[in-house]
Give the backbone structure.
Amino acid sequence: MIKAHWAALCVLLACSAQAAEPAGTIKVVKGSVSIERDGKKMPATVGSQVEIADRVRTGKESSVGVTLRDNTLLSAGPHSLIVIDKFAYDQTTQDGSMSIGIRKGTLSVASGKIAKRTPESVDFHTPTSVLGVRGTEFVVEVVGGSDE
Amino acid sequence: MNKSHVSLALLALLMLAGCASERFVLLPSADGRPGAVVVRDAGGEVALDNPYAATMRSVGGKTRYQSSVEDVQARFGEALAAQPPRPTSYVLYFETGGNVLTPGSQAALAGIRQEIADRPASEVMVIGHTDRVGSVEANDRLSLKRAEGLRDVLIEAGVAAGKLEAVGRGERDPLVATDDEVDEPKNRRVEISVR
């Protein structure tokens, strides 16, 4: 009986974990940085989890650094809006995919394990362009992009 | 149209261009390996495949140019300064036929604990690996058992359990490539990745 309960709980946890699986963790915060999730805005602090569909926004003289679960490093400068559109990573097989949007501001990227293993499943996009990545580091600037 | 109208129109055009400009610069990679970025838009694609190769997109179209350390620092300095510390990875080995670390790996553990303590919001992946003796499924289980063993060692050493995640990668990711069913001690290892 207890075992059955545990099994049910595990299934429940597995499902909820999938629904809100963390994509990464905030490691660096300077100035005012917020995470927008389900229409709510909360301040981001070192250790905050970043989830799929989150929007990470920096204010004036602010910046943020995020390490994704596949070791991708993202960091944004002031007045930036970054959206985690997709993220999936299986630690056992190392299969995964990600799609990150840069709506405005500046972003630096050091790509991680997904880009190394399956570069075709990684994309970064701006309002007008899509970037394909082959195991690398780069920076992107979007001037006067969308605020949403 | 008088002169001030012309300059106003010009200003408006410049502002419009400024409103929608995008810039992409490939950086040298930290591990020194060549990398590339392909930038695609409605008008086609541009490949950036050497360090500081750059493209700028605005109303007038796309322009390729060669950026530089100084240019990148001026535009992206604040973003780059916020880059999290790079993940580091350690490999620990076990004494033959047991769950006891070799003296060298035992000594390395102290340094790893220090690094976990020093990093902001550190997270640790403990990744077990096997050689190719046995089935893929059996090796998945064995590698997870190795990882969980080492996770417990780290917890005993004072690392918060919430920071640790143990995974078994089985025989998928060998240090030394071998044929199936080959006994290879170097592949029987646990990797600790701190990020």
Summary: Chain B touches chain A through 54 residues (CB under 8 Å). DSSP finds four helices and nine strands in chain B. The beta strands of chain B are 22-27, 36-41, 44-48, 53-58, 61-66, 88-93, 124-128, 164-168, 189-194. Chain B has a mean pLDDT of 87.
